[in-house]
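Researcher: We plan to redesign the surface later, but first we want a full-length starting point. Tokens attached.
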């Protein structure tokens, strides 16, 4: 049998691409060497958010007296971990059912590309018209540390003190998780601020929140070495050592290259064109193995686009406007531009939610919505949110950026009250000093 498409990897990119191809009536085989669902489902998005959800509930008891509640929440870390594992298994089973329900053939094993139409799977040779590489990425390792994958299977092990190396998205989420569970956390970052790709004010605010919650944040750290849970490093020309119960390295991920007997251009990741084709036209690569932005939702979108291009010659989606979310408290979300370097071309609208009713109800701190608008076109080009449910709100702004819609259209909507989304309207209003809930810059006395 000759397959229309063989996919290597059944993560967020692979399984979505397989189902999309099956919907186009194609014969599809998907090969997975580990677990269906890939990193996101088994070691990333879903496990971390499951644990964070429980940990936030534990952490929320600090507000009990304010809310008129009495009592103390206790937690069983092993049961929390078991719940996470059960949820992951349910979702894994669900994806496998979706694949088989769409007549996708699933095979486990190690794939090797022999030529552009032939794959070897543990000694079996498989013919195909197209190949989609969705091999993902693995955690970048550091000696004598836990990886961000390994630390999610903590079982009943409790840490009194943790050092987390890396102040990116994963590092900040893990810092939040363990602090919520009562662990003393130190966060080390090489750059001059955590979450460096995001808006500077987001980095500053999260740093303040972390420090208020007893997370020790150290930036501009270099020369890190770890031995027997003792972390030695240089911080601003001073050598320091911290002793901990465990050390986590959250220092990025490395694209996974598939074994191949033919040369497929790979320079730290697969090189692809705008149609997601590798240097061999009928071999495509999507997701973390080829993208500079390693996000599950982008991987899925790329897989759909690649399959569409294979079998229709067209790509209908837009892969250039991609939102990012950080699941701290409050949540953080960003899309498009994050900083303005040219005041003559761009205008910034901002609404701080300190006095916002729904934010106060949820007892969130240091929340804001910031919008960047092109002065000439009046179109939204960037948005940064730091507020509860930011990950849900960012999609509306992503749509406006992608469609190049004038920002005043956001003013014309009627927003529910109380809600977090109404902050977007005030941020737009602030562009013309028309925000209702912001004190005027100049108070007029009549």
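Model: Full-length starting sequence:
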């Amino acid at each position: 049998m000759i397959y229309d498409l063989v996919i290597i990897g059944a993560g967020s990119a692979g399984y979505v691409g397989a189902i999309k191809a099956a919907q186009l009536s194609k014969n599809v085989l998907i090969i997975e060497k580990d677990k269906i669902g890939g990193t996101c489902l088994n070691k990333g998005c879903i496990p971390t958010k499951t644990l964070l959800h429980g940990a936030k509930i534990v952490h929320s008891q600090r507000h009990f007296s304010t809310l008129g509640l009495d009592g103390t929440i206790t937690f069983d870390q092993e049961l929390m971990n078991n719940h996470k594992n059960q949820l992951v298994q349910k979702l894994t089973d669900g994806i496998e059912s979706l694949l088989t329900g769409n007549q996708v053939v699933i095979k486990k094993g190690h794939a090797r590309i022999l030529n552009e139409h032939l794959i070897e799977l543990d000694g079996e040779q498989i013919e195909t018209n197209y190949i989609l590489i969705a091999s993902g990425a693995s955690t970048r390792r550091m000696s004598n540390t836990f990886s961000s994958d390994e630390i999610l299977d903590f079982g009943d092990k409790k840490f009194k003190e943790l050092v987390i190396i890396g102040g990116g998205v994963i590092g900040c989420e893990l810092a939040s998780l363990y602090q919520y569970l009562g662990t003393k956390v130190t966060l080390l970052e090489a750059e001059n601020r955590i979450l460096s790709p995001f808006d500077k004010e987001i980095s500053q605010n999260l740093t303040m929140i972390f420090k208020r919650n007893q997370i020790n944040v150290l930036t501009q750290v270099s020369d890190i070495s770890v031995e027997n849970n003792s972390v030695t490093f240089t911080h601003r020309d001073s050598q320091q050592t911290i002793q901990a119960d465990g050390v986590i390295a959250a220092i990025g991920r490395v694209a996974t290259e598939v074994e191949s007997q033919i040369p497929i251009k790979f320079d730290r990741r697969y090189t692809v064109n705008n149609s997601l084709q590798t240097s061999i036209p009928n071999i495509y690569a999507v997701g973390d193995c080829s993208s500079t932005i390693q996000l599950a939702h982008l991987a899925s979108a790329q897989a759909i686009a690649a399959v569409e291009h294979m079998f229709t010659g067209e790509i209908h989606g837009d892969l250039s406007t991609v939102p990012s979310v950080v699941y701290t408290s409050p949540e953080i979300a960003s899309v498009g531009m994050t900083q303005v370097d040219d005041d003559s071309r761009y205008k910034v609208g901002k609404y701080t939610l300190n006095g916002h009713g729904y934010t106060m109800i949820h007892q969130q701190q240091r929340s804001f919505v910031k919008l960047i608008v092109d002065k000439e076109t009046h179109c939204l080009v960037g948005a940064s949110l730091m507020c509860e449910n930011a990950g849900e709100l960012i999609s509306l702004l992503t749509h406006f950026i992608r469609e190049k819609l004038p920002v005043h259209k956001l003013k014309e909507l009627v927003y529910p009250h109380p809600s977090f989304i109404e902050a977007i309207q005030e941020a737009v209003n602030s562009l013309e000093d028309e925000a209702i809930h912001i004190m005027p810059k100049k108070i007029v006395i009549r």
